[in-house]
Amino acid sequence: MTIQPTAPPSMSGRSWALLFVLGGLWGGSFFLTQIVIRELPPLPLVGARLGLAALALLVYLRLRGISFAPLRQRAGDFLILGLLNNAVPFLLLAIGQTRMGGGLASILNATTPLWTILVAAIATSDERLTGRKLAGVMLGIVGVAVLVGPEAFGTGHSVPVYAFAAILAATFCYALSGVFSRRFKGVPPAVVATGQLCASGLMMMPLVLAVHGPLVYGDLSGGGAVALLALALGATALAFILFFQIVAAAGATNASLVTFLVPASAILLGVLFHGEALTAGEVGGFALILAGLAAIDGRIARLIHAQAVAR
Fold first, then answer.
1. DSSP category for residue 257
2. Spans of all domains in the chain
3. CA–CA gap between residue 195 and residue 177 (Å, rounded)
4. How much is the pLDDT for 299?
5. What's the pTM?
6. I need a surface site. Which of 60, 140, 180, 223 has the fewest CB within 10 A?
7. Given this model, what pLDDT does residue 154 score?
8. 3-state secondary structure string, the chain?
9. Residues 158, 118: Cα–Cα separation, whole Å
10. DSSP assigned state of 99
């Protein structure tokens, strides 16, 4: 997984624009999952999400006349990427959201850049672990501890420890996949998105049928079906095309900053439509996570320094 030295990747204006769009799409995914999880168990939810998204992207490639050759030539790599970036984390997120709201889940998901920085520092040569990044990671970890709180380990806490663990394990999978996806440099982002979704969909659907049978989707309501379709097409198929465009242009660490934006839309939708509310500890923990991400990014510190010098 070691990457040859290159210039440190940076964010262009276009990359930032894509990041904001992606943040909205993935923020919506927590909201949509909260709707569908009431009607489907986690496994069939994830299987349908991946299968529908894969079919949509295969049609997209065909209509755009984009070659399918990389899908066959790099099937093994796509299998690994599909496991790390789709099948395993999607299932873990769905399991976590059976016991917590989308807003809280999205806040925990915001720790993804912290793990991405650590993984990238080990596996790459151009995304090194600096003192500033380390400080940001430590601040973010403290934020997670504050967010979860000591009461999480008591019997009276409304969210069980396994739900927190599932979401955090999903974020670590995303960190691994973000760095692994760098080896697809030169492959069109739409092809990378299609390859990983096809691989993960082919892994998950037989498992869904074996465990739940084909009739598991029979009781899905009209609203649930619409939410599932939006989750698959918008928050998965389209979102991953945008994600891999950002990875290709700006690197894994910068792409993972999307989780800095996701909670805002997820929390707003949860409050407006699901009646979710955040505790003071959760808000404080989120503030620390955001402070850690700001320290990692460094732009605010550079702006303050530039203004001080100008004076």
1. G
2. 13-129+160-276
3. 13
4. 66
5. 0.77
6. 223
7. 47
8. CCCCCCCCCCCCHHHHHHHHHHHHHHHHHHHHHHHHCCCCCHHHHHHHHHHHHHHHHHHHHHHHCCCCHHHHHCHHHHHHHHHHHHHHHHHHHHHHHCCCCHHHHHHHHCCHHHHHHHHHHHHCCCCCCCHHHHHHHHHHHHHHHHHHCHHHHCCCCCCCHHHHHHHHHHHHHHHHHHHHHHHHCCCCHHHHHHHHHHHHHHHHHHHHHHHHCHHHHCCCCHHHHHHHHHHHHHHHHHHHHHHHHHHHHHCHHHHHHHHHCHHHHHHHHHHHHHCCCCCHHHHHHHHHHHHHHHHHHCHHHHHHHHHHHHC
9. 31
10. S
Cα 163 to chain centroid, rounded: 16
Measured distance CA(191)–CA(197) in Å, rounded: 10
Is the separation of the CB atoms in 116 and 253 below 8 Å?
A: yes
Q: Per-block average pLDDT, block size 10, for the chain (311 residues)? A: 49 84 91 93 95 95 91 93 95 92 82 83 76 78 72 58 92 91 86 94 93 90 96 94 86 74 77 75 79 74 66 65
Structure tokens at 221: 């309501």
- What phi, psi does 68 have (nearest 5°)? -90, -5
DSSP secondary structure, 165-195, as one string: HHHHHHHHHHHHHHHHGGGGTTS-HHHHHHH
> Which one-letter DSSP state was computed for residue 8?
P
Question: Are residues 283 and 107 in contact, defined by beta-carbon separation less than 8 angstroms?
Answer: no
Q: How far apart are CA 170 and CA 205, in angstroms?
A: 20
DSSP string covering 192-237: HHHHHHHHHHHHHHHHHHHHH-GGGGTT--HHHHHHHHHHHIIIII
CB 82 within 8 A of CB 203: yes
Q: Are 153 and 161 a contacting pair, CB within 8 Å?
A: yes
pLDDT at 304: 65
Lookup: tokens for 20 = 């904001």
pLDDT for 176 = 93
